[in-house]
Amino acid sequence: MLCDKNVFLGVENLGKQFPGNGTPLTVLENINFEAEDGEVISIVGRSGCGKSTLLKILAGFLKPDSGSVFFKGSRVHRPGPDRCVVFQEDALFPWLTAGENIAFGLKRQIRDGSRIEREVDRFLDLMGLSQFRDYLPREISGGMKQRVALARVLILNPEILLMDEPFAALDAQTREEMQELLLELWGQFSHTIVFVTHDVGEAVAISDRVIVMDKNPGRIKDVINIELERPRRREDVNFMRFYSRLYKLLRD
């Protein structure tokens, strides 16, 4: 039973429909999986297979039409501080500096100003952004903005990090740097990560498991365990073996 408290994150018989032209459009159907504490799971699939919709349901932003999401034995009904989302767009407040953006959510949790400043300094340092603390979003690069967006959620110490193609808009080199940074931070904080991506190489690089989705309606086609030690090298023959296997699943 996924409502068992021993199941960290569980998705059971999940379905979602949206209004169509006279007939509801089934976006997700019979989605079932579990995620362990500290596990990194990627979700891949073609556009329109419901990946982002699934992530929004996990976050509590959308309600399923059937089935349930359980977190440590409790049904997920709404957003909560235990689950934080990083979107493809950085969603930073343009009038706040990098440091102020990072502090924004934390100010709603604690009142100790000096503690907030210490935590902001710590996360700016972790992100390699200490010298950009007082810069506005328009004054820093896309990669730096995503570092700020990531710091803004990590500082809240969520148990689950939900990431919706967060590096898709970055150039290839910056994207790989962000993947490496994410894994470094995961090594320190051990969050459970559910990561939506179109990039098969990205999924192989970061994941313990990859959920492959089909479309019309969105269903789980296969789940692949990525049995590779970290750090992973893209030129490695075993890396390419998993890449080819996932790519073939997406093409078939």
TrEMBL record:
Transmembrane segments: none
ABC transporter domain location: 9-240
Protein name: ABC transporter domain-containing protein
Record InterPro entries: AAA+_ATPase, ABC_transporter-like_ATP-bd, ABC_transporter-like_CS, ABC_transporter_ATP-bind, P-loop_NTPase
Gene3D superfamilies: P-loop containing nucleotide triphosphate hydrolases
Entry keywords, A to Z: ATP-binding, Nucleotide-binding, Transport
Molecular functions per Gene Ontology: ATP binding; ATP hydrolysis activity
Pfam families, per database record: ABC_tran
Organism from which the protein derives: Desulfamplus magnetovallimortis
Alphabetical list of SUPFAM superfamilies matching this protein: P-loop containing nucleoside triphosphate hydrolases
Coiled coil stretches, renumbered: none
Keyword Transferase attributed: no
